[in-house]
Write a structure and sequence with these properties.
Blueprint: E1 21-27, H1 34-45, E2 50-56, E3 61-67, H2 73-82, E4 88-89, H3 92-128, H4 133-154, H5 156-167, H6 174-193, H7 201-222, H8 228-231, E5 239-244, E6 247-252, E7 261-264, E8 273-278, E9 281-284, H9 286-289, E10 295-297, E11 302-303, E12 308-309, E13 314-320, H10 326-341, H11 347-374, H12 377-390, H13 394-413, E14 416-418, H14 423-427, E15 432-436, E16 442-449, H15 454-464, H16 470-481, E17 490-495, E18 499-504, E19 507-512, H17 514-517, E20 526-532, E21 538-546, H18 550-559, E22 563-567, H19 572-582, E23 586-588, H20 593-602, E24 607-610, H21 617-622, E25 625-629, H22 634-639, E26 642-644, H23 651-685, H24 691-713
Parallel strand pairs: 15-22, 15-24, 22-23, 24-25, 25-26
Antiparallel strand pairs: 1-3, 1-4, 2-3, 5-6, 5-7, 7-13, 8-11, 8-13, 9-10, 9-12, 14-26, 16-21, 17-18, 18-19, 19-20, 20-21
Helix pairs in contact: 3-4, 3-7, 4-6, 4-7, 5-6, 6-7, 6-12, 7-13, 7-24, 11-12, 11-13, 12-23, 12-24, 13-23, 13-24, 15-16, 23-24
């Protein structure tokens, strides 16, 4: 069977790599900030033979394109080692194990810090109650024996990150954190050795515990990320049936060369880009272009990797393989877009850029001021330590993870999985929503439109009942729903690329494309024709079935002040018809995958993209924020920031409301942290707060921002 419909051409996504170019993904577990990204990319690009290097922060990996004649993976790994980053070639099992080890390591450190803090606080109760002399000193030494090993183990992530930042001659949030921990524990050890009345081991441990809690919450969110570019490999056929003089033999795709001939059987996925040399069929391009209807294809027509052969075997002359195919170029677009999106920095990171230098300057000012005023170095160090602890960005470090964890939990209960740490922050900023049509707003099931004559329906149903073609199935369903019994038709034959033929009442009967059935009308639309010999052909027209809740979703999005646009690979009239049904003002049809990517990337403002197919993957990755239904293909779900697990489209507006509410909670937490610092910093600078009081104040601010975040979990925006 075939259709009379204008079908968009699938265009290339950009030039492929040079003949000597090769790409590799390296896992870099220790990359953690914008400074790391810049250092790695600068260092690798300075190497001879390296053409490009892009770091994906969420996935902790770097994608490198290099000249295989001038460089090698071992050189890249060695260079990363000299830059201070341990690296290895990407291996799926190793990566999963590294993620599991990271989760377990942070949780163990959190447990050690909490357990040690509780024990030291219990010992401190006696000191606070008035223990003096040797008893007090003994309790301090026991506290030191518990605290120092615990701090060395539990605070290692902060120490390591701070050292890397200082090695790169930059500051991050971990530098003041590490300095505060070291000074608090060092001052306490000095006080204990000198028989002093105060030790602040509990302060150092409490500080470490709360910061590890924030780090673990953030890590849980990041651990959900998977690369869409990697998932696309699942759609890329690894072997092909190569036709040779001796017959058909199986070859790996990497062994094929332009000019080879491959055979693709019925139901098989096309493994290469090329031209049909022999055979006629229909192709399912829905994953690649988003077209609803199968596309007729015969000798001389171009075909593309990733499409499915529906009707009959075909021989294809190979033009492109691997990364040079349309599918490969889509994967390249996705990698680039994913990398660009991970450069988005969270509100906490942006605040930390200003906050970290200020903390150090305040502590230095406190030390210098008290040293010059009193000449007491010990007192000056104690006050500087108190300033570092009281201004330590613990509340700032918890402000975002606490809110995001509460928001993620609320969304998960509503059937939405948030896959990226900054997704809700980005979602709160969107002003435009771009919706895919096929599979997102509509089902993949076509419905027969109107009511053809009953006798025509009975004949069409008889021809269609033995076919697996989507339009044939739609006719069979419609006839069954109308209670019509298929007519008696004999000698039924399905002709690839044309339709189905049989005989009824001594006459030839055909169901298929217009030219084959003798129909003259060729208006755009999804349709097929029934032709009875010596009679006028009858048109069977089809329409997309709108998903439940799609209309309400569009209305809700527009009520939030968002512009809604429909973007589809289907013909323009079909896209416009669906847009009119749903109340969408703008609709663009015949949009190839790379053009979807370009549309999103060049669109002014902040775009939320919603799609479910391979043709949407690059656009999902390029959007400011993206969402995919739970029924979407793996690559689309991996490219998306949000996955609608229950397939309920109406929840999308709730996601936007929760995201905006979460942003308000984050800003409120920053305001709480700022108000706390406005009171606490002068007290610490004036010497009114000891390191212990500073730690208690710091802890109270952390608890306050956590309680504020829990308001969101309870549903109060």
């Amino acid at each position: 069977m075939s259709l009379d419909q204008t079908h968009p051409q699938t265009e290339g996504a950009g030039p492929g790599p040079t003949p000597r170019s090769q790409s590799i993904d390296l896992t870099v577990p220790e990359v953690h900030c914008a400074s790391c990204i810049a250092r790695i990319e600068r260092g690798l690009k300075a190497m001879q033979g390296v053409e490009d290097a892009r770091v994906n922060l969420s996935l902790k990996r770097v994608h490198v394109t290099y000249d295989k004649d001038r460089s090698a993976p071992e050189d890249l790994i060695s260079k990363l080692g000299r830059l201070g980053f341990e690296a290895s070639e990407l291996d799926a099992e190793t990566l999963k194990q590294a993620t599991r080890d990271g989760d377990r390591g942070l949780l163990l450190r959190l447990g050690v810090a909490g357990f040690a803090a509780m024990n030291v606080m219990l010992l401190s109760v006696s000191v606070w109650a008035g223990a003096e002399g040797s008893t007090r000193d003994f309790l301090h030494w026991i506290s030191a024996a518990i605290a120092l090993p615990a701090l060395v183990y539990a605070a290692r992530p902060f120490f390591s990150n701070a050292w890397r930042a200082l090695s790169a001659r930059s500051l991050n949030m971990d530098v003041p954190i590490s300095l505060a921990i070291v000074l608090a524990s060092g001052t306490s050890l000095y006080e204990t050795a000198m028989g002093g009345p105060h030790a602040y081991f509990d302060a150092a441990l409490s500080l470490t515990f709360f910061l590890l809690l924030g780090r673990y919450l953030d890590h849980l969110t990041r651990a959900k990320a998977r690369s869409a570019a990697v998932e696309l490999a699942a759609l890329d056929v690894q072997v092909a049936n190569l036709r040779t003089e001796d017959g058909i033999t199986t070859r790996r795709i990497s062994e094929l060369r332009p000019g080879d001939v491959v055979m693709v059987g019925t139901g098989g996925r096309v493994p290469v880009d090329g031209t049909i040399l022999r055979g006629a069929t229909e192709l399912d391009n829905s994953l690649l272009t988003g077209e609803t209807a199968p596309v007729p294809a015969a000798a001389g027509d171009d075909v593309f990797s990733g499409t499915v052969n529906l009707s009959g075997p075909i021989d294809i002359g190979v033009k492109e393989t691997g990364e040079d195919t349309v599918l490969g170029r889509i994967a390249s677009l996705v990698r680039t877009a994913e990398t660009a999106r991970t450069r988005y920095t969270s509100l906490a990171d942006r605040a930390a850029r200003l906050y970290a230098p200020l903390v150090h300057l305040l502590a230095l000012a406190a030390f210098v001021g008290w040293q010059l005023t009193t000449g007491d170095t010990r007192l000056a160090i104690t006050i500087a330590t108190a300033v570092l602890i009281i201004t330590c960005p613990c509340a700032l470090g918890l402000a975002v993870p606490a809110v995001m964890t509460a928001a993620n939990g609320r969304l998960f209960r509503a059937g939405v999985l948030v896959r990226d740490a900054t997704a809700l922050e980005r979602l709160a900023e969107v002003d435009t929503v771009v919706l895919d049509k096929t599979g997102t707003l509509t089902t993949n099931t076509l419905l027969l439109r109107g009511a053809p004559p009953p006798e025509a329906m009975r004949l069409a149903a008889a021809l269609a009942e033995g076919s697996s073609h989507p339009l044939a199935r739609a006719i069979s369903r419609a006839a069954g729903a109308a209670g019509l019994t298929p007519a008696q038709v004999g000698k039924v034959t399905e002709i690839p690329g044309k339709g189905i033929e049989g005989r009824s009442g001594g006459k030839r009967v055909r169901l298929g494309q217009a030219a084959w059935c003798g129909a003259r009308a060729r208006t755009p639309g999804v349709r097929t024709w029934l032709a009875v010999e010596d009679e006028e052909p009858v048109a069977f027209e089809f329409e997309d079935q709108i998903r439940s809740g799609a209309g309400k979703m569009v209305a809700d999005l527009k009520s939030l002040g968002l512009e809604v646009i429909l973007l589809s690979g289907d013909a323009q009239p079909i896209a416009e018809a669906v847009a009119r049904q749903l109340g969408i003002d703008q609709a663009f049809g015949e949009v190839a995958p790379d053009k979807k990517h370009d549309f999103i990337q060049n669109r002014p403002g902040k775009v939320l993209m919603v799609g479910d197919g391979l043709n949407d993957t690059a656009a999902l990755a390029a959007a400011h924020v993206s969402a995919a239904p739970g029924r979407a293909i793996d690559a689309a779900r991996s490219a998306a920031d949000l996955v609608l697990l229950r397939g309920d489209l109406t929840v999308l507006a709730d996601c936007l409301r929760i995201a905006r509410s979460a942003r308000r909670r984050i800003l409120e937490n920053f305001a709480i942290a700022a108000a706390y610092n406005a009171v606490a910093i002068p007290a610490a600078l004036s010497g009114l707060a000891t390191p212990l009081l500073a730690a208690l104040a710091m802890s109270s601010s952390s608890i306050t921002v956590s309680l504020n975040a829990l308001r969101l979990r309870g549903g109060r925006g």
